[in-house]
Amino acid sequence: MTNFDKWIDRFSQRYPSAERLGVPVAKWRKSIYVTIFESNTKLGRNFDRILTILIALSLLVLIFHSVPSVQKSSFENLLSGLEWFFTIIFTAEYILRIISVRKPVGYIFSFYGVVDFLSIIPAYLSIFYPDAHYLSAIRALRLIRTFHVFPLLKGFMEDYLFLGRALKSSARKIFVFLSVVAVIVFVMGTLIYIIEGPENGFTSVPVGIYWAISTVTTVGYGDITPSTGAGRFFASIMMLIGWGILAVPTGLVGAEFYRNMSYRPDGMKYECDKCHEKLHDKDANFCKICGNEIIKK
Amino acid sequence: MTNFDKWIDRFSQRYPSAERLGVPVAKWRKSIYVTIFESNTKLGRNFDRILTILIALSLLVLIFHSVPSVQKSSFENLLSGLEWFFTIIFTAEYILRIISVRKPVGYIFSFYGVVDFLSIIPAYLSIFYPDAHYLSAIRALRLIRTFHVFPLLKGFMEDYLFLGRALKSSARKIFVFLSVVAVIVFVMGTLIYIIEGPENGFTSVPVGIYWAISTVTTVGYGDITPSTGAGRFFASIMMLIGWGILAVPTGLVGAEFYRNMSYRPDGMKYECDKCHEKLHDKDANFCKICGNEIIKK
Amino acid sequence: MTNFDKWIDRFSQRYPSAERLGVPVAKWRKSIYVTIFESNTKLGRNFDRILTILIALSLLVLIFHSVPSVQKSSFENLLSGLEWFFTIIFTAEYILRIISVRKPVGYIFSFYGVVDFLSIIPAYLSIFYPDAHYLSAIRALRLIRTFHVFPLLKGFMEDYLFLGRALKSSARKIFVFLSVVAVIVFVMGTLIYIIEGPENGFTSVPVGIYWAISTVTTVGYGDITPSTGAGRFFASIMMLIGWGILAVPTGLVGAEFYRNMSYRPDGMKYECDKCHEKLHDKDANFCKICGNEIIKK
Amino acid sequence: MTNFDKWIDRFSQRYPSAERLGVPVAKWRKSIYVTIFESNTKLGRNFDRILTILIALSLLVLIFHSVPSVQKSSFENLLSGLEWFFTIIFTAEYILRIISVRKPVGYIFSFYGVVDFLSIIPAYLSIFYPDAHYLSAIRALRLIRTFHVFPLLKGFMEDYLFLGRALKSSARKIFVFLSVVAVIVFVMGTLIYIIEGPENGFTSVPVGIYWAISTVTTVGYGDITPSTGAGRFFASIMMLIGWGILAVPTGLVGAEFYRNMSYRPDGMKYECDKCHEKLHDKDANFCKICGNEIIKK
Hints:
- The structure is a homotetramer.
- The first copy, chain A, is mostly helical.
- Chain A has helices at 3-13, 18-21, 27-37, 42-65, 68-72, 75-100, 104-108, 111-125, 146-149, 157-196, 205-216, 229-260.
- The longest helix of chain A is centred in the middle third of the chain and has 40 residues, at 157-196.
- Chain A is flat, with a radius of gyration of 26 Å.
- The first copy, chain A, starts with a helix and ends in a 37-residue tail after the last helix.
């Protein structure tokens, strides 16, 4: 089993493997386990689908509940009620997950175990701090599994994994790049603070760095802008630098994508043993360059 | 006939095939049909050209008519008159298209059949709702056929199809990418709403999401900007994320373009004599299916 | 002589060929011709260098002259004087170019002939319309030849031609792409005008189109922004579209660049006759894939 | 030893080679030299690590010290004290570096020698000009060595060098590109000054150029925007141009990255046994210089 296959498995299962969770022996616990942790039974698949729809609905309620005109309308009570309804359901789900496995710790401290917990706790906190319940927006992360759950969207899974693989292989380079950008942005942010000063809106070095980031990334809000000649000259140079180095992550990911295209979706390589040509089509049996048969490894 | 050829055909014909429309038998109906649905007669080609010019002119009139200083001037009546003139012509064209085929339903519910209908109906609606007539701007979609109609621009058709093919083959990946961005933007938009709050312009979660999209895409209007230290720190991280993931669609489409360049524009000339596989790469010397040498004709 | 070499020649000579200009017979005219039109004599090269420096200086004077604080200072007269000094020199140069060739029409209507004319005429117009003299900024186009003139910068010529070649080969595709963007921007600009209306700053359809372009290109000035919920939702979609299609020209040019890298700077190809591998280094004598000798064509 | 290896060496050593600095003979001076200039002893490595942490801390102090609310608080004295503490340490380090080598000039005028000097002098200048001490932010440049110093981050060194190599090989092309952009931006900035004029915020040609740069790079602050119809039309064209040419540096760097990926990260392992050429591509089977087969070790 290659590294790549393990990754697919870990991803499609979402929760830790049966060994780490400990499949329960008691019949009633086992049937709960199979339904909520696995998706190879009809009941399990339907559970996943209903859960995904409930998550999406709970997020919609959250969005609408935050709109001032809705808060003042008669819908307010309905939306509050719905939020508590969803909280109870997801709390019940969380408790069921814990009691249905023999080693609850394996679930509680897994990535999605933490997300599940963080998605329900803000609602209870909101009794004391009303605004806290918006933090349950983190529940949106659970929607990433949508492609896996609905048969119609399963075709996208391959592209999803392709994107992930390409990003993963550029991740280290992008990290290095961002750390160099951090040094540039720090020096630039300090210089603009010296040039323009608090009287032109650059009230501190952190504000200068915030401005430098918004300029280098070409976002350019315009809430803080240079107004002296020297500051504008300096800003012009920064824009050109930002524009130039924007090319770096883009070029990196693009080159990585193209290289990844020569791998089959299952992570195997198609390389001709004779002429070492790598870019063969998925359906190729013979090398298009030298005519040698391709042994699929 | 490969999938690709069908696509070219469907595109160049614009309207459904003769079989689906039903070529009329009566001589007068058939001559109308040939003129307005086909472009292999001189009359048909001229009809297409005049129609394209009329569409472009009607859009220019629409633009000028919306300018306040024009609306107050003496040109107002002239432009109103011209708009009705164009509406009558396009209505007549629509009626002719319906009566000249034996199966009008095939035309009415085709893509361009719907566009044709939506392009004339707003003018009639404007009798009751004056602003409605701007909706006829959808007529602009009919201009996409311009490359096909004018001989001078026919050279661009190949590039047009190349772009379409490359985009089509990245479409699924871009869709997957945008759905991941949607999750990020939702979480970020909720967090900024909690951090900054209504007192700094982030009046609701949807407004936060609107801000998050404008930041991640590096548009950065600056109509809503963070003003607290925490908010600006958070925004800086979002800009860098946005800048980084901007690389994803760009890299994807670029890699797809480069791969597409190795296919012949006509997609079928390199046919294998043995197994009759047609879709070989430009640089292929041997058939990828059966290993037979390809004789380039 | 390949197409590519002709292009180099035309570019390095800048002015039409000797045949089209008509080399004069009289000795004094011929010596002027050789000095100002050719660059294979020491005098000719120095003339080119001094001219380039004068053009750069005249542009600097133009820039400084426009600053309000300079206009009010005692430098004003000096700068005015310098501008007239440059105008007289460039006028003299223009007259010399005309009288030193036998067929002045060939020079006057060539690309740089027109630029030369447009660079001096605004100064004379400024007697009647003071602001007109800024139009002489078009003189900056003459600076593009700088890489050719100075020996230190000659090394950049190859990169300059590489960029030109790659852009030239994507030009048609970029044109097709921009015409599709034009249709999208027109429809979007009209829709935002209907949604937001004049009361929110979208005073006419052209203003809506201006906004749509600033959004799709991710410039996002923020001088006109949607303020209704529907408008912001619509704007969010537009930003994502713009972000997505931004990938198209970038990907195109990138793919074209990569393809161009397999050509030698002199436009000849390095392709292996045996295995058809194309990406060889400049100094390669043998194919890195199959070991076959490369015959440089 | 190839050019590339020299570059790695120079980079990892940071300071000039032992020959250029002159290793001292006296025992106490030599032990100082080995500790602060070299990193092959345990003491030397720890010195490097502590120094890197001190630099990072001194920059954090600088940032916090600039925030107005901190300046007014009781922390002010603590931060001032810390800044002087860091200044004294770095001054001591600078003096030690000078006295521990036999040829101090070789150190003082090296790149990092100048950075070291510029990092301590602003603190002393701040006695006369209080704001000057922010200039010590240039110390951030010393952090670039972080990847080299900490064992955990050493894995990133390869990616760091990869990025550097790819950027270095596109540097000339990007310079040529930016000089063409400079000409465009100059002409455009002058034209918008003529079109919009001082009454709409375009107070001089330099301001127009500043606006043109912010538009072409898609930053779009929105502090200065066109308000006439002609100006907006002109701005729309500029945005599209900027969007189009943005593709150029991106495409360039991307293509360069992809080409660089085919080189081995160590750049020298595939040595030809016959002609001893070392810089072969990753996919090379035969020597590109002499055609001999490469035995991959």
